[in-house]
Design brief:
- By secondary structure, the protein is an alpha+beta fold.
- It folds into two domains: 132 residues; 104 residues, Transferase(Phosphotransferase), domain 1 (Orthogonal Bundle), CATH 1.10.510.10.
- The protein is built from five helices and 14 strands.
- Strands 1, 2, 3, 4, 5, 6, 7, 8 and 9 form a nine-stranded antiparallel beta sheet that branches. A three-stranded antiparallel beta sheet has the order 10-12-13.
- A hairpin with a 2-residue loop joins strand 2 and strand 3.
- Helix 3 crosses helix 5.
Length: 243
């Protein structure tokens, strides 16, 4: 394996058509089988809420991780659910997300610590997976939506503002990619996300990102709860713009 420089040190590995980036702290125990759901047996549990599927919790007594396989969305997924056009390693989605997560983690932003990523190339296409540490005692904002107190809504607003002011554009900011645990809020799933120069200005992309979150909340809010959710949303905005 070969070290790769950057914000954090990852170690590059290869086995056949599979390629890996592994956090150096996990190198001593690394096995390529980590990316195979069948390897984990009874330690594996499907993540059933949010997303398009193909994500699993891993808890084998030593590790508490999340394994996620990258899937395609939309009509093209009917042709190929989990394969992407290979345009060079710099555009491999799992490697991009791993490196971005480590940047954000090192900057003190509330994200899961990354573990490792892989991609397997077949001809002109590839499939990919990522491993991250699981945020304990957390569930998604979407799962808890109707029970969240105003203080939590304000915490969500403050956390999103921190990311925005660090120049982080979350390409799929929805209520199932926000984890809420006692005393903490984290963002997850940074696939295809990007960064702008850090700025506290209220630029259009920040407002558009908030609107994306609002649409996801409206989508799952029962009509009889819409008035309460609208008031809660104002609490989120109040905290966001107070930063």
């Amino acid at each position: 394996m070969q070290s790769e420089s950057g914000v954090a040190e990852f170690v590059r590995g290869k086995g056949g058509s599979a390629h890996y980036l592994v956090g150096s702290r996990y190198l001593d125990t690394f096995r390529s089988e980590w990316f195979s759901p069948s390897h984990w047996g009874l330690a594996l549990e499907p993540v059933s809420k949010g997303g398009r599927g193909n994500a699993w919790f891993i808890d084998d007594g030593q590790r508490s991780w999340v394994l996620r396989q990258y899937l395609r969305g939309g009509i093209v997924s009917r042709i190929s659910a989990d394969r992407f056009l290979f345009l060079g390693e710099k555009k491999v989605r799992s490697f991009d997300e791993l490196k971005l997560l480590q940047e954000l983690f090192d900057e003190g932003l509330p994200v899961p610590e990354p573990v490792a990523a892989s991609y397997t190339r077949i001809g002109t296409s590839y499939s990919a997976c990522i491993l991250i540490n699981r945020i304990q005692t957390a569930s998604t904002m979407g799962e808890q939506l109707l029970d969240l107190e105003s203080l939590v809504w304000r915490s969500v607003g403050s956390v999103i503002r921190r990311f925005h002011d660090h120049g982080v554009y979350h390409s799929d900011l929805n209520c199932f990619n926000i984890l809420v645990s006692p005393g903490a809020v984290h963002l997850i799933d940074f696939d295809k996300c990007r960064r702008y120069p850090p700025s506290r200005d209220n630029v259009p992309w920040k407002a558009n990102n908030l609107e994306r979150l609002k649409r996801s909340i409206d989508k799952i809010t029962p009509p009889e709860m819409s008035q309460k959710t609208a008031a809660d949303w104002q609490q989120l905005l109040s905290a966001y713009y107070a930063q």
